[in-house]
Amino acid sequence: MNGPVHQKADWGSIHAKICQLLIPLRTTMPFYNSEEERQHGLQQLQRRQKHLIEFCYTVAQKYLFEGRHEDAVPAALHSLRFRMNVHGLSSVELVPAYLLLAEASLALQHGLGRIVQAEEYLSQAQWTVLKSTDCSNATHSLLHRNLGLLYIAKKNLEEARYHLANDIYFASCAYGTEDVRTSGGYFHLANIFYGLKKMELADTLYTKVSEIWYSYLNSHYQDLLQARSQQTDLLGKQFVNDTGLASGCIHKPNEAQEAEAIRILTSILIIQESTSTKAPQKSILILKTLSILYYLMLEYSKAKEYAMKALSLAETYVSEEEQRVIQELLSVISAEEKQLMT
Questions:
Q1: Whether the model pTM is above 0.85
Q2: Which of 13, 68, 120, 151 could join 160 in a cystine, given CB atoms 3.0 to 4.6 angstroms apart?
């Protein structure tokens, strides 16, 4: 990136976040007294490089899901450069970064120029995959998903459906059919059917996506509740680390997954609430899922807002048992919010 405008964009997007992490990489390696020390030093360097690769990639993903497409480009470019340094210029490890850059280009499209840019990144990714003998199902999935998005942008929906079907197939092979990493393919395919007014097909897929995210986030939520109930001090207060999660063994979704879940679930909720055949139970599921998500993100006011909306609908449309589940969620959120304020 050249020029003050691009440098400022680069700094605001990613460079400020990784500046301190770059210092050890740009420092000349010291003289080692033994081969064992030298190997240890190299391993530390490789770990730092891999951490930077994943960090930049996650930041770029998060920006994309949040709609901050201009910010995603510098972060994705940094991930690509670090991958080249570590893996070489023709490694399949470069493909995820190429695909992020392609997706950002498509999202930024202003006429033909951005589509052409996206096609260049995708061609590079395809060529790298074709030359590779050990390309994973996960990488094949990402490639087909981005090809699907490209053909959606080009209004070639038949080709888009073909690639999204392949995305779902490869993602299912890599992660299983009920994994959140597979759900993105279902979501984009549902959007195609929705645009074609094939509402029954679209609704089936949107429901599947909602159920996958609920299952995933509720599992984290239940693990968290269980961990907190087991780890109390003598005064009955919970030991909670600075992420809000009791004990180091419970992991919440990363920032990119959080942003993806918000984008997908709010999109489906808007569609459901705008259709003539509204399905309150499906809206309740999404509201409940969003509430759990924001709770895991420690955004208690948003979590409470969605839980209250879910409960309001539930009082009319679902059983008392289902209402009780939402009431319990609301109680947990309120207790956490109160504890935070005291």
A1: no
A2: 151
